[in-house]
Amino acid sequence: MDSVVGKLIHHESDFQRTHYVQRRCLHVCQRRLEWYSKCVLGTANPPSSTATSNSPSTTDAAPLPSSFRWSSTGPLISPKNDSRNLAGVKDPSIVYHDGAWHVFATTAKSGSWGLFYTNFTTWSQAASAPFFYLDQSGIGTGYRAAPQIFYFAPQKLWYLVYQNGNAAYSTNPDISNPAGWTEPKAFYSGMPKIVEQHIGEGYWLDMWVICDEALCHLFSSDDNGQLYRSETPLGNFPDGFSEPVIALQDPDRFRLFEASNVYQYAKDSYLLLVEAIGTDERRWFRSWTSSSIAGPWKELAAEEENAFMRSNNVAFPSGTPEWTKDFSHGEMIRSGVDQEMKINPCKMVYFYQGMDPNAEGAYGDLPWRLALVTQTNSAC
User: Fold this and answer.
1) I need a labelling partner for 143 at 20 to 30 A (CA). Which of 105, 133, 334, 344 fits?
2) CA distances from 107 to 115, 134, 186, 346 (A)
3) In the prediction, which pLDDT does 8 show?
C-alpha cells in the first residue's frame, strides 16, 4: 500500500479516535473550450462531536505555507463494470462518519450526468466498494452533478448540494441510507440576474455551502471568470438566500474557472480554492485566504509557477505511475462533517479527479478517476 493511503489509514484511526487566452493561438483556445463542464445501510444517529485532535485551532491561525508540495496515489475509485457503462467518475465529496468514509460523486457517460454514493471503512476497500446510483432515491433521474455533502447540525439533517440546472439540494436523516434522499429542491427560483449578466458562453455550476456562526454562504461559478457568493441567516437555511455578489473575478475565464471549495482552517481563517485551466490545457488549483467567508480574498498560491496544486508540484511515489497531469474538482478531507467545513491545515489531504494524460474526446466521455494527494511540506 502506498504511503499516501497509509497516511489516510492513520487518519481513519484518528477519527475513530497578463492573460493566458490572449497569449495562446486560436486552436489551443478552442481545445480549452472543449473542457467545459457543460451540463458540463445504518442508523439515523447524529454525528459525534467534530472536535478531534485533528481539528483546526480555535484561537490562533494555523500556519499555511506560501508554496505547496504533494504526493499522489494512483486511482482509488473507478467506474464499475456494470450496465451503466460509465466513462468516468468525478467531482467527489467525502466525510468520515460513524466508522466509515462516505463518498458522493458524479457519474459521466456521453454527456449524461448523475450521482452515486459509496462507503468503505478503509481506503484499501475503496476500489471494490459497491456503488448506489442516486437516481434510485428521491433525487430521481435527469441531470445531476457536482455534489457536496455535509451535516447541518442545527437541523440534525444531512444535506447533499448539487447542480441540476439550478442550485439544488436534497436531505436525509441517515447518510448511510442512500435510498433516503428527498426529491430536489432549489435554493433560487432560477438563475440569478447577476449570473445571467456575466455568464457569457459559460455555465452556472459547482455550488458550495459553508456556514459560520451567523450566516450560511452559497458559492457558485460560471466558467467565465466569476465566482459568486450569496448568504442567508443560519436560522433561515436553506431558505432566503440573497442575490449573489461577485466574490472574485478574473478577466481570463480559464484562470477562475469552476469547482470552488471554501474551508475554515483556524479561527477567523478561511482557505478558498478555485480550479483553473492552465496554459498547458491541464486542470490545476489556485488558492486564496481571508479572515471572513465574505472576503476580501488574498492570493496565497495562485500562479502556475506557484500553484496550490498542479502537475509541477505533485509527485508520484516509487511504484505509482504518473497516471494524470490534471488535478481537478474534488474536496479536502475535513476534520468534521458539519456546515462549518473545518479542515486541519497540517498535512492536508485532498480527494481529487484525474485522468490519463493521453485521453481525448468529448468532455462527457473523458475517463476521470478519483485519487488522493497528501501535502508533503506542511509547516506543522
Assistant:
1) 334
2) 6, 10, 21, 31
3) 58
